[in-house]
Amino acid sequence: MECCVIGTGYVGLVTGACLADMGNSVICVDRDNLKINKLSKGEIPIFEAGLEAIVTRCLKSGKLKFTTSTKEAVHVSTLIFITVDTPSDYQGYADLTHVDEVAGDIASVMNGYKIIINKSTVPVGTTRRVERVIEESLKEYHEFDVISNPEFLREGTAVSDFMKPARIVIGSGSQKAIMMMTDLYRKMNAPLLITDPVSAEMIKYASNAFLATKVSYINAIANICEVVGADVREVSLGMGYDERIGFEFLRAGPGFGGSCFPKDCRALLRIAGDYGYNFKLLEGVMDVNREQQLRTVDKIKRMAGGFDGKKIGVLGLAFKANTDDIRESPAVNIVSMVLSGGAEVSVYDPEAMENASEFIPEAKFAGDAYEVAAQADILVLLTEWDEFKWLDYTRIKELMNSPVLLDARNCLDPAVLRKIGYTYEGVGR
Ligand code: UGA
After folding, report:
1. 93: which DSSP letter?
2. 151 lines ligand 1 (CB under 6 A)
3. 183 and 235: one domain?
4. What integer is the mean pLDDT of 307-330?
5. What pLDDT is stored for residue 91 in this prediction?
6. Residue 105 burial (CB count, 10 A)
7. Which of 281, 294, 411, 419 is deepest in the core (most CB within 10 A)?
């Protein structure tokens, strides 16, 4: 099928590349000339496992193209995916400026029947809003359908999430659009939920907010575990065996971050408020998340014996492992608070150093984990990169000023570290 994808961020790029790899002809559009030039040469601006290989393969086969021209892309495509960002505005609402602009651009160059597919996370009612923008901006009459088809990709595993989705949600009242979308996804072995656009939009927010709730719930349980002397990892395991609960998203840590959970929780809270519902549960989820970061800072301070004149070594800056993304990263927030407290902070992350440098310029950016540990009064593990699990902790102990370790992701073995001679603390254990 002929597809175009407007917006080449994480979602757009993964969607475009994967659709092309499935055999569709795809043109990805972005206003950023430099980005499009690089992408046309197979240079990927983000770190995402498997993506580069797919882009290279599809560029070579001619199935994937990049352009700055919406007109060129829309003219040859029937399926038009909108994958632009919807950042939080100052009140917590999703800012739809980019979605509106793209809808207007599409309308102004439409040359026949088009299905406009909203993949961005947008407030309830946006499908209708995009329909209106298109109706108002059309230069001449053309039949079109706007549908909601939310994405559920996770950074770091986005390619496999796209290719093997847990479900596909299509929100539309148009039989024609539903038939074409069903055809597009027919090779995927996943449940297909066809519903109305408003429910599809709600499914996306409700899913992300629920996952965020699980994370805050287990973090709250971890905090109780710490005082009663239980181990939250055992508790999560014991809970997870119950299929109604499941094992996923029950890892305690420094709180959730990223470009989705915090923004989507804020937006859902706003949506609920606008319709007269006080979503206290979600407020609690966000409060626990804020407190979790503050608790981590307090723990570092206590374990280091204060901040003044102390050297804090930090492993990890990305909001989670396997990504270079630091948007709303608990690690970056925590480093920032520790720096404000007056400590000297040395940091290392395998992929996110460049992105983090402008937000924590006072930190010392080290070449590796061992450089971070040198003369440190405490080592704090904030992102669960695999390579941090396999460091030579005996060597690290020798390098440190004092062998104190806070494992804020519970990815190390306390018994082994204590045996080496560390004062070890995790989260909820
Ligand atoms: C999330 C959802 O998982 C995707 O399904 C969704 O498509 C995406 O948002 C989106 O809306 O675009 P993502 O933000 O990439 O994906 O990251 P997650 O893997 O969900 O992690 C979010 C945060 O929760 C991270 O900071 C992570 O460290 C934290 N987390 C997650 C925990 O602290 N504990 C857990 O057990 C799981």
Report:
1. P
2. yes
3. no
4. 96
5. 85
6. 18
7. 411
Q: Are 328 and 356 in contact (CB under 8 A)?
A: no
Q: What pLDDT is stored for residue 88 in this prediction? A: 83
Where does the pLDDT of residue 28 fall: very low under 50, low under 70, confident under 90, or very high at 90 and above? Answer: very high
* Residue at 186: amino acid letter: R
Site to substitute for ligand 1 among 202, 215, 329, most atoms within 8 A of C-beta: 215
Number of structural domains (the chain) is 2
- Name the residue at shortest CA distance from atom 7 of ligand 1: 152
Instruction: Write out the H or E segment, with its range, that includes residue 423.
Output: strand 423-425
pLDDT at 219: 98
Q: Strand pairing partners for 96?
A: none
Active site residue 28: no
Rounded Cα–Cα distance for residues 348 and 353 (Å): 7
Judge if 281 and 346 occupy the same domain: yes
* Neighbouring C-beta atoms of residue 95, cutoff 10 Å: 16
Indicate whether 100 and 16 sit together in one domain: yes
* Ligand 1 midpoint to CA 104 (Å): 32
| Strand runs labelled E in 42-163 | 64-67, 79-82, 114-118, 144-148
- The mean pLDDT of 240-247, rounded to a whole number, is 98
* Identified catalytic residue from 18, 260, 265, 411: 260
Same domain, 150 and 298: no
Same domain, 257 and 323: yes
Query: Does one domain contain both 189 and 240?
Result: no
Q: How many CB atoms lie within 10 A of CB 251?
A: 20
Confidence band of 73 (pLDDT split at 50, 70, 90): very high
- Output the domain CATH number for residue 46: 3.40.50.720
Average pLDDT of the chain, as a whole number: 96
In a domain, 207, yes or no: no
Place of tokens 């770091």: 156
Domain endpoint, select from 136, 171, 195: 195
- In the structure encoding, which two tokens stand for residue 259, read together? 């470009």
User: CA-CA distance, 104 to 101, in Å (whole number)?
Assistant: 5
Q: Which two tokens stand for residue 62?
A: 């001619």
Q: Where are the alpha helices (DSSP H) in 229-242?
A: 232-240
| 3-state secondary structure at position 283 | helix
Claim to verify: residue 306 and residue 364 sit in the same structural domain: yes
Residues 47 and 182 in one domain: yes
How many Cβ atoms sit within 10 Å of the Cβ of residue 108?
14
pLDDT score recorded for residue 94: 84
Enter the tokens of residue 205.
């927010």
Mean pLDDT, rounded, for 194-205: 96
- Which of 146, 168, 195 lies at the terminal end of a domain, its last residue? 195
